[in-house]
Specification:
Layout lengths: L4 E3 L8 H5 L9 E3 L7 H8 L6 E3 L7 H9 L6 H4 E3 L5 E3 L15 E3 L8 H10 L5 E3 L7 H5 L9 E3 L10
Parallel strand pairs: 1-2, 2-3, 3-6, 6-7, 7-8
Antiparallel strand pairs: 4-5
Length: about 170
Amino acid sequence: STLETLSLGWCNRVSDADIATLGGLKALRKLVLARTRAGAAAAAAIRRLPNLVALDLTGTPFDDDALAVLTLGFSPTSFETGVETGARGEFTAASSPSATGGDPPALRELSLEATRVTGRAGVLVAGAFASSLVGFNAAFTEMSDDGARSMRDMSALRRVNLDSCPVGDGA
Protein backbone atom coordinates (compact mmCIF):
# COMPACT_ATOMS: atom_id res chain seq x y z
CA SER A 1 0.00 0.00 0.00
CA THR A 2 1.14 3.57 -0.69
CA LEU A 3 -1.19 5.17 1.88
CA GLU A 4 0.78 7.79 3.84
CA THR A 5 -1.88 9.35 6.12
CA LEU A 6 -4.78 7.67 7.89
CA SER A 7 -7.13 9.48 10.25
CA LEU A 8 -9.63 7.48 12.25
CA GLY A 9 -10.05 10.25 14.84
CA TRP A 10 -13.34 10.22 16.73
CA CYS A 11 -14.32 6.89 15.21
CA ASN A 12 -15.07 5.59 18.68
CA ARG A 13 -16.30 2.23 17.41
CA VAL A 14 -12.85 1.41 16.03
CA SER A 15 -11.56 -1.23 18.43
CA ASP A 16 -8.10 -2.26 19.47
CA ALA A 17 -8.50 -5.40 17.32
CA ASP A 18 -9.52 -3.30 14.29
CA ILE A 19 -6.42 -1.13 14.67
CA ALA A 20 -4.25 -4.23 15.00
CA THR A 21 -4.95 -5.00 11.33
CA LEU A 22 -3.14 -1.81 10.20
CA GLY A 23 0.36 -3.26 10.66
CA GLY A 24 0.69 -3.96 6.94
CA LEU A 25 0.49 -0.29 5.91
CA LYS A 26 4.26 0.03 5.56
CA ALA A 27 4.20 3.44 3.77
CA LEU A 28 2.07 5.07 6.50
CA ARG A 29 3.69 8.25 7.87
CA LYS A 30 0.85 9.77 9.92
CA LEU A 31 -1.75 7.90 11.96
CA VAL A 32 -4.56 9.61 13.90
CA LEU A 33 -6.34 7.30 16.33
CA ALA A 34 -7.77 9.99 18.64
CA ARG A 35 -10.88 8.85 20.54
CA THR A 36 -10.68 5.29 19.23
CA ARG A 37 -10.25 2.28 21.53
CA ALA A 38 -6.50 1.93 20.84
CA GLY A 39 -4.58 -0.16 23.37
CA ALA A 40 -1.86 -2.81 23.50
CA ALA A 41 -2.98 -4.67 20.35
CA ALA A 42 -2.91 -1.39 18.43
CA ALA A 43 0.55 -0.66 19.85
CA ALA A 44 1.91 -3.92 18.47
CA ALA A 45 0.58 -3.04 15.00
CA ILE A 46 1.93 0.52 15.20
CA ARG A 47 5.36 -0.90 16.03
CA ARG A 48 5.32 -2.62 12.63
CA LEU A 49 4.91 0.70 10.73
CA PRO A 50 8.53 1.53 9.88
CA ASN A 51 7.86 4.91 8.22
CA LEU A 52 5.48 6.32 10.85
CA VAL A 53 6.58 9.76 12.05
CA ALA A 54 3.37 11.17 13.58
CA LEU A 55 1.00 9.37 15.95
CA ASP A 56 -2.04 10.85 17.68
CA LEU A 57 -3.55 8.74 20.47
CA THR A 58 -5.47 11.58 22.16
CA GLY A 59 -8.31 10.39 24.37
CA THR A 60 -7.75 6.68 23.84
CA PRO A 61 -7.53 4.04 26.59
CA PHE A 62 -3.80 3.78 25.78
CA ASP A 63 -1.98 3.09 29.06
CA ASP A 64 1.51 2.26 30.34
CA ASP A 65 1.17 -1.38 29.25
CA ALA A 66 0.30 -0.31 25.69
CA LEU A 67 3.13 2.25 25.69
CA ALA A 68 5.55 -0.48 26.78
CA VAL A 69 4.45 -2.58 23.81
CA LEU A 70 5.01 0.38 21.48
CA THR A 71 8.34 1.51 22.90
CA LEU A 72 9.97 -1.62 24.27
CA GLY A 73 8.20 -4.39 22.40
CA PHE A 74 6.89 -6.12 25.54
CA SER A 75 3.59 -7.94 25.49
CA PRO A 76 1.06 -6.64 28.05
CA THR A 77 1.46 -9.79 30.14
CA SER A 78 5.20 -9.28 30.48
CA PHE A 79 5.09 -5.55 31.21
CA GLU A 80 5.51 -5.82 34.97
CA THR A 81 8.52 -8.12 34.62
CA GLY A 82 9.82 -6.39 31.50
CA VAL A 83 10.36 -3.04 33.17
CA GLU A 84 12.44 -2.77 36.30
CA THR A 85 13.08 0.07 38.72
CA GLY A 86 16.65 1.34 38.63
CA ALA A 87 18.73 2.55 41.59
CA ARG A 88 17.21 6.04 41.56
CA GLY A 89 13.64 4.82 40.99
CA GLU A 90 13.56 5.30 37.22
CA PHE A 91 12.21 2.57 34.98
CA THR A 92 14.59 0.72 32.69
CA ALA A 93 14.10 -1.96 30.06
CA ALA A 94 14.90 -5.52 31.02
CA SER A 95 15.11 -8.59 28.82
CA SER A 96 11.86 -10.36 28.12
CA PRO A 97 11.19 -13.56 26.23
CA SER A 98 7.89 -12.15 24.96
CA ALA A 99 9.40 -9.12 23.25
CA THR A 100 7.94 -8.42 19.83
CA GLY A 101 11.35 -7.64 18.34
CA GLY A 102 12.42 -4.87 16.01
CA ASP A 103 12.73 -1.20 16.75
CA PRO A 104 9.75 1.10 17.23
CA PRO A 105 9.11 3.63 14.44
CA ALA A 106 11.23 6.81 14.62
CA LEU A 107 8.35 9.05 15.68
CA ARG A 108 8.78 12.81 15.41
CA GLU A 109 5.34 13.75 16.82
CA LEU A 110 3.46 11.86 19.55
CA SER A 111 0.25 12.82 21.31
CA LEU A 112 -0.78 10.89 24.40
CA GLU A 113 -3.10 13.68 25.58
CA ALA A 114 -5.90 12.53 27.88
CA THR A 115 -4.77 8.90 27.79
CA ARG A 116 -4.21 6.62 30.79
CA VAL A 117 -0.42 6.86 30.85
CA THR A 118 1.39 7.71 34.09
CA GLY A 119 4.84 9.01 35.03
CA ARG A 120 6.39 5.97 33.35
CA ALA A 121 5.38 7.46 30.00
CA GLY A 122 8.25 9.95 29.98
CA VAL A 123 10.76 7.21 30.70
CA LEU A 124 9.41 4.91 28.00
CA VAL A 125 9.13 7.72 25.44
CA ALA A 126 12.62 9.02 26.22
CA GLY A 127 14.11 5.56 25.87
CA ALA A 128 12.47 4.80 22.54
CA PHE A 129 12.42 8.17 20.80
CA ALA A 130 15.35 10.08 22.34
CA SER A 131 16.88 11.11 19.03
CA SER A 132 13.77 11.42 16.85
CA LEU A 133 10.88 12.97 18.82
CA VAL A 134 10.39 16.69 18.15
CA GLY A 135 6.91 17.18 19.64
CA PHE A 136 5.36 15.41 22.63
CA ASN A 137 1.89 16.03 24.08
CA ALA A 138 1.05 14.41 27.42
CA ALA A 139 -1.49 16.98 28.59
CA PHE A 140 -4.21 15.74 30.94
CA THR A 141 -2.29 12.58 31.85
CA GLU A 142 -0.64 11.52 35.10
CA MET A 143 2.85 12.43 33.81
CA SER A 144 4.96 13.03 36.91
CA ASP A 145 8.20 14.81 37.77
CA ASP A 146 10.16 11.58 37.21
CA GLY A 147 8.59 11.14 33.78
CA ALA A 148 9.32 14.75 32.82
CA ARG A 149 12.90 14.54 34.14
CA SER A 150 13.60 11.49 32.00
CA MET A 151 12.98 13.58 28.86
CA ARG A 152 15.67 16.18 29.61
CA ASP A 153 18.28 14.51 27.38
CA MET A 154 16.05 14.07 24.33
CA SER A 155 18.20 15.84 21.76
CA ALA A 156 15.53 16.51 19.10
CA LEU A 157 12.67 17.53 21.43
CA ARG A 158 11.42 21.06 20.74
CA ARG A 159 7.76 21.08 21.86
CA VAL A 160 6.29 19.56 25.02
CA ASN A 161 2.75 19.96 26.38
CA LEU A 162 2.23 18.83 29.98
CA ASP A 163 -0.89 20.93 30.70
CA SER A 164 -2.86 19.74 33.75
CA CYS A 165 -0.31 17.06 34.68
CA PRO A 166 0.89 16.65 38.28
CA VAL A 167 4.39 17.82 37.24
CA GLY A 168 5.90 20.07 39.88
CA ASP A 169 3.83 18.79 42.81
CA GLY A 170 6.56 16.41 43.93
CA ALA A 171 4.89 13.42 42.27
